[in-house]
Amino acid sequence: MGSDARDEDGRSDSLMIAHYDQTTNDVKLVSIMRDTYVDIPGHGMNKINAAFAFGGPELVRKTIKQNFDIDVNYYALADFKGFPKIIDLLAPDGIEVDIPYEMSYGIGMTLHPGKQVLHGNELLGYVRFRHDRLSDFGRVERQQEVLTKVKEQIGVSSLMNLPKLLGVADSYFDTNVDNKTILTIGKGIVNGKSKGMETLRIPVADSYEDKRTNVGDVLDINLDKNKQALEEFLSSKENETDDASSSESNGSN
Questions:
Q1: pLDDT tens digits for 178-201?
Q2: Cβ distance 87 to 150 under 8 Å?
């Protein structure tokens, strides 16, 4: 979960579910869009990002379980102030992106069009920009793009930086994942020569419609279609593994 200090009602700004298979070393990432209209236990129908405001990580976990039948074991709540520092430790040479048009509104900087290498603070602006025709859809796509490219850069040097990274993360992350587990996953990804990272967006294409409700504009989803897509995406033929959530984002997951 990603939290925005500027969001006075305490809603999560991004929500992701990360899945790591210890047998195949495959990494999968699911972004659940913040305006997805779901049933929040004890609070009725609302945008999924309201679950964090109502009940923190545990209610987000229950909301994901109730709506998508995915039982997420761990959570990580990220303060966006820590994002640039973590990214710069994992990808010290920066991340190359192709910016399609000028981005400036709402991110405190101006990013100009074209291929370029961005570092921490610039990457934060890149993944947070959503004032274009794609709105939050474009932002989710950029978040997945950056995390995928960061994953591709993780190597032995990243493992050597892991103690320092954990020290930095301690100031900006709240998580129930212990350091031993984080180290084990990190070593597995590097030593297992994990390939890329598969991504999925919820709601999937052709499974939702825009709707105006008493809680504002929402994405009214075909729940069965999205549950099936999520189950198929996360399933492993080798064995069942643990899931962890972080987030664009994306509750005690």
A1: 888 888 888 887 776 667 789 999
A2: yes
